[in-house]
Amino acid sequence: MPEKSSELVQGTLDMLILKTLALEPLHGYGIGLRIQQISRGVFQVNPGSLFPAFRRLERQSLIKPEWRATENNRRAKYYTLTEQGRKKLKHETREWETQTAAIARILKAVPGELG
Amino acid sequence: MKLLPSLRAGLERLLHKQRTEQELQEELDGYLQDAAEDKMGAGMAEGEARRAARVELGSAEAVKEEVRSVGWENRLETCGQDVRYALRMLRKNPGFTIIAILTLALGIGANASLFSIVNTVLLQPLPFKNPSRLMMLYEGLPQIGSPKIPFSTPDFTMVRRGQKSFDSVGAMQDKEFELSGGGEPDRIIGARVSASIFPMLGVAPALGRFFRPEEDAPGQNVAVLSYGLWQRRYGGRPDIVGETIDLDRQPYTVIGVMPKHFVLPLPGPQANFLPAALWVPMAFTPAELQGWGLRYDLSVLARLRPGVSLQQARSDGQALGTAIESQYPPDVLKDFYGARLLVPVFPWRQEVTGPVRPLLLVLMVAVGLVLLIACANVATLLVSRAAARKREIAVRRALGATRSRLLRQLLTESLLLALLGGGLGLLLAYWSKNTLLALAPADIPLPQNVGFSGGVLLFVLGISCLTALLFGLAPAWHTAGGELQPGLQESGRGRTAGRSHHRLQNTFVAVEFGLSLVLLIGAGLLIRSFAKLLHTGLGFQPDHVLTMEVPLPAHAYPQASQIRNLYQGLVEEVPNLPGVKEAGIADDLPQRAAVFHTLELEGRPQVGKPPAVTETWVLGNYFQTMRIPLVAGRFFNRQDGPDSPPVVIISQAMAKKYWPGQNPIGKRLRHEENQPWITVVGVVGDVSDGPGTQQPRPHIYLPFLQLSDTLTADNIVGVARSMNLAVRTQTDPASLTSEVVAKVHSLDPDLAVANIAPMPQLVSSLLAGPRFNTTLLGLFAGFALFLSAIGIYGVLAYAVAQQRHEIGIRMALGARPRHVLRFVLAWGTRLACVGTVCGIVAALALTRLMKGLLYGVGATDPLTFAAVTLLLLLVALFASYLPARRATKVDPMIALRCE
Question: Per-residue pLDDT for B672 more than 90?
Fold first, then answer.
């Protein structure tokens, strides 16, 4: 695990949470952990941003909370992706791909490419 | 964001606050536990793992606060907190709170009550169906200076037949009736209206029906009552419809009653503006229909045909004028002196609101200024209080409140003050509205039913919020901002208050003075013109004169000889009453004369505009009764009867204008070409034509006994049968009322005497309009002056209290009381001077608005400006003197010790 994690690009946390939940319903700690694992430790999400993000997404009806028992037999709030959330994720992903591809092209541009 | 789910979730959280809080806590706990377990799994000791997890989370409270701040309901909550806190602060300072609320209540209340009038009069459409299509038509001869003349009957019928722009056209005419049958005889104002008028307005009767078109003909005696008359005289009995009432001793059948708020004619336009108590069909008589060039006294209403623009109607009106002209008998047409007759068209609303608009706008500006002054006053209070709260604010900022959060908090307090003030102001306005309307003279077209509609409530709400921003923003910005350190230090011991407080307060006070000056100058100008009105030479002596109108119903007095006999009998009998010195009769009382006639003067060629004069028919000792002095020649006497040569008495103005430098006695004049010459036998002094007219108009007096039989008995010319009796008494004229009325009834017990009033009262009632303007503006200006005085007093008193220490040191170092006095006085005067200079500039720009309300005084009258400025400075000096004197009483020892 690297000492310092990268800053998340503004506004991408919501998308990452949605993606994580698209794989399976998870509780708060699980989501943070999953993001960290999948990103191979590049992103370490601060709970101070994570929880407000949950509340925000819940408000937009993109995720749905549900109290369930964990594997350690504790009660925990699991979040599930809603149908709207799924749509939103799809849309955001496409958007993101278009943008990153464009940015990548710009960054790789060599002199005289358009000339 | 989806609105509905967000709304639901927010509400849920507000309603189940405890549960959501618990769940949040549980979620965070779970997170901590998971994190700690993970760390233990990675080999940490339990205690260490837990600590590490907690460090990772940071402050749990901060996280919770972040989570809570998601969603709208959070803002609602902080707002609730702000309100609660603000209420606590206001309760803690009852003195400040009460003064601020009262000041605002008066300011907002004045605005609300005036707005309720403006709203009804200027902003709301006329209360009829599709009112913007309703037009008022006139005849016009702009080339000879008469752009708007009411219609004569034949001309109206021409328009009704020939027009193409209107769906319907109708005429109305005020008419006084003697209402009898079922109770005391009563003089009432009614109106003759065309059958087309009611359907045109689209108002349904409350009871019964309107006139049918076939009822708009002579002999069809039907009447529609107003709601007021129905309630007052008939107790609101529904079976009144179908009953018979007597109008001018003729039976009329009541066929309907109009709804409560129906008013017609509407006040405002120049003719036929008296709201009627009942309506009868217009029913033109054959004589009226043939009266070419005779009586121009019909108000004509019309509804524009759909798709026809005002512009089109106006150009059609020109053609109509030409068509009417072509029908005129040539001998009448020559009175136009070649001017082209037009039919001008104006929106009815404009005719109704036109006369009152400038007054209302001036008053609206005035109350606006009063409110601004009230704002400035409350703002200075807030700044003073801000100084006292400096430490509280500094502490709160040190504890992490952001500037915007504090600003919101302070503005909430201001808003609360303004809303409380606004609520109280609304109550004040509601209570005072009847007083205000009662003050208003009858000839100002104010509606009887000024409503407190939703519009007024919205206005008060809006103006309260605006007010809160106005008086709250600057002090709040000032209080919430600034550096932290000085805030904590400044309020410590031994320091004088910050200079910036004073700067802000000084500005407010200067602004107050400037605004007050504008108001005072406005009021001053009105007072000056009112004084001029009062001192216009009347030309007669109104004191000890009792007047009353003695109208003779045409039905009971069909013959000219009967009319003459009755009036002649009156002027002979009344002087025999004890306490009566003299009596006379005239068709118009002084200052009311409104009948104009054109004349032909012997030996003077007819070119351009004909001589136009005011004409009065007199009988008995009218001149002696009114004390109108004889300048030359003689008064009328008994010999000036129907069979003797016609004679006339003219006014001095008439003599000067038409026979300058000659002896007018023996000169001759006549009304029209084929009529006999009338010889001038006397010249009397000029009588004022009422307030607002500077030069007396030429006036002729004719002996009533020489009024021709046809004119006297004519049903149309009501003048000869509604003469005014004037009685000069030895004592208080009102005390003889019953004796004089009894004398009238001894001649005819059925006569209804109308408009009984001592002449001084009539004279002063003509001043009711100007008095209304002057009183209101004076009231507002006085209030403004009072507020400004309080403002300057408050600022200086506060400053002196804050600077006791400094003053103490100065005095300890040798300053004399008069130095201190001068210092404080100079401060106050400086503020007033700055305000005054700004105020004069503003007043120069604003008083132009008032030109129409002034009489004999320019809008920039230097005397008024100077006097008001002096007054304001004196008030400032006085208001500064009290705190200044307190400053000189500072005992240096005590001042230094108490620190």
Answer: no
Distance of alpha carbon A66 from the chain centroid: 19
- Model confidence pLDDT, tens digit, residues B401-418: 777 778 888 888 888 888
Contact in structure between B368 and B111 (CB atoms under 8 Å): yes
Q: What tokens does B382 get? A: 């807030």
> From the list A28, A32, A61, which residue is nearest B27 (CB)?
A28
Looking at the DSSP assignment, which residues form a beta bridge with residue A26?
A: A79
Q: Rounded to the nearest 5 degrees, what angle is found at the Cα of B412, between the Cα atoms of B411 and B417?
A: 95
Q: Does B202 touch chain A (CB under 8 A)?
A: no
Across B111-125, B495-509, B531-545, B634-648, the highest mean pLDDT is recorded for: B634-648
Of B9, B31, B63, the CB nearest to A59: B9
Q: Which two tokens stand for residue B211?
A: 């006139």
CA distances (Å), origin B212, targets B194, B353, B707 = 10, 31, 38
Average pLDDT across chain B, whole number: 81
What pLDDT digit, counting tens, does each position of B161-219 carry?
Answer: 888 889 899 999 988 888 887 667 777 888 999 999 998 998 889 999 988 888 888 88
Distance separating alpha carbons of residues B91 and B417, to the nearest angstrom: 11
| Residue B225, H or E segment | strand B222-225
Q: CA neighbours within 13 Å on the CB side: how many for A51?
A: 27
Helix B17-41 to helix A47-59 angle (10° resolution) is 140
Q: What is the DSSP string of B726-791?
A: EEEESS-GGGGHHHHHHHHHHH-TT---EEEEEHHHHHHHTTHHHHHHHHHHHHHHHHHHHHHHHH
Extract the tokens encoding B263.
Answer: 């008013």
Q: CA A35 to CA A40: how far, in whole Å?
A: 8
Query: What percentage of chain A has pLDDT greater than the value 90?
Result: 3
CATH of A13-108, one of 3.40.50.300, 1.10.10.10, 3.10.129.10, 3.20.20.70: 1.10.10.10
pLDDT given for residue B224 in this prediction: 93
Contact B516, B442 (CB under 8 A): no
State residue B239 phi and psi, 5-degree precision: -80, 10
Amino acid at B651: S
Q: Chain A contact for B637, CB < 8 A? A: no
Whether omega before B205 lies within 30 degrees of 0, making that bond cis, reads: no
Confidence of residue B864 (pLDDT cuts 50, 70, 90): confident
From the list A30, A56, A61, which residue is nearest B70 (CB)? A56
Do the Cβ atoms of A51 and B2 come within 8 Å?
Answer: no
Contact B34 A30 (CB under 8 A): yes
3-state secondary structure of B601: strand
Q: What are phi and psi of B295, to 5 degrees?
A: -115, 120
Q: What is the DSSP string of B319-360?
A: HHHHHHHHHS-HHHHGGGTTPPPB--EEEHHHHHHGGGHHHH
pTM of the model: 0.68
Phi, psi of B546 (to 5 degrees): -105, 135
- Does the ipTM exceed 0.85? no
Q: What is the pLDDT of residues B127-148, one digit of tens each?
A: 888 888 999 999 888 776 677 8
